[in-house]
Amino acid sequence: MTGREGRVWLVTGASRGLGRAISEVALEAGETVVATARRPEALSELSARHGDRVVPLALDVTDRAAVFEAVDRAVEAVGRIDVLLNNAGYGLSGGVEEVGEQQVRDQMEVNFFGALWCTQAVLPVMRRQGSGHILQMSSIAGIATYPNIGMYHASKWALEGMGETLAKEVAGFGIRVTLVEPGEFRTDWSAQSMVRAIPMPEYDEVLAKRRHGMSGAFAHLQPGDPRKAGEALLKLLDAERPPLRILLGNSAADLAPRVYRERLAEWERWESLARTTDYPS
């Protein structure tokens, strides 16, 4: 579907942060949003302001059966799904040695498997329509890495690999995929949305700065404006040839090219060794 008239979004994690801001921007532009959250009462203000163009649904994205049921309910209520914004997710801070097994499994269940289940559930709908756009909310953390959030990186790198592959598989059905890679945006991601591992004293010196950064001290002080992220996504959806990847924010736009230049330089330095490992031709 081109243009905004009649476009229907399904947004996971719509109760706060980027998901809430993007939903608000879409609604103000005249679109319809099926807004999902673990606690649907958190969506009551959104419904009160925008009436029947908001369809609030309770959804735990880690429950695959519930995801498919929610998509069926959404289609029954509004007839179609034109945009899936896989936004539900949270952060896990802790060194690779520090994080607990259940913490890691929970991180992957929400950030990766949740997005996978939602993607699988909407694909039959979009294939029948012959159109649709899946926005996978990745992160600059899906490209670059920082100490103390290795498992968050793992979840986003997995999402990047799945999303890029998906784009190649569904293009022939008229379905587009974009990996959204924001930098730091003004949300509570490092505060209430952050799970923290029990720190090990052996890493006190190494991780001190990063632990402070993930403590919530800088929540709601980040440079990125969540509403402007929503406005950017509306422009992307209206583009004739939308990108597979989009960086959002100055920090992301600065960092990603630098990271790739460093990788290219390292591959080039070690190219001669790389070429020693095939059978003779």
Attribute tags:
Rossmann fold, 281 residues, alpha/beta, 9 helices
Protein architecture, described:
- The chain is an alpha/beta fold.
- It has a single domain (8-250), classed as Rossmann fold, CATH 3.40.50.
- Helices cover 47% and strands 15% of the residues.
- The protein has helices spanning 17-28, 44-50, 64-78, 101-129, 150-170, 204-213, 226-238, 250-269, 271-274, and strands spanning 8-11, 32-37, 54-58, 83-86, 91-93, 132-137, 175-182, 194-196, 245-248.
- The protein has a 7-stranded parallel sheet with strand order 3-2-1-4-6-7-9, with helices on both faces.
- It is globular, with a radius of gyration of 20 Å.
- The mean pLDDT is 93.
What's the topology here?
Layout: E1 8-11, H1 17-28, E2 32-37, H2 44-50, E3 54-58, H3 64-78, E4 83-86, E5 91-93, H4 101-129, E6 132-137, H5 150-170, E7 175-182, E8 194-196, H6 204-213, H7 226-238, E9 245-248, H8 250-269, H9 271-274
Parallel strand pairs: 1-2, 1-4, 2-3, 4-6, 5-8, 6-7, 7-9
Helix pairs in contact: 1-7, 3-4, 4-5
Q: Tell me about the biggest sheet?
A: 7 strands, parallel
What is the number of strand segments? Answer: 9
Residues in β-strands, percent: 15-25%
What is the assigned CATH homologous superfamily? Answer: NAD(P)-binding Rossmann-like Domain
- N-to-C SSE string, H for helix and E for strand: EHEHEHEEHEHEEHHEHH
CATH class: Alpha Beta
**How many domains would you count in the coordinates?**
1
Q: Give the termini separation.
A: 50 Å
How are the strands of the biggest sheet laid out side by side? 3-2-1-4-6-7-9
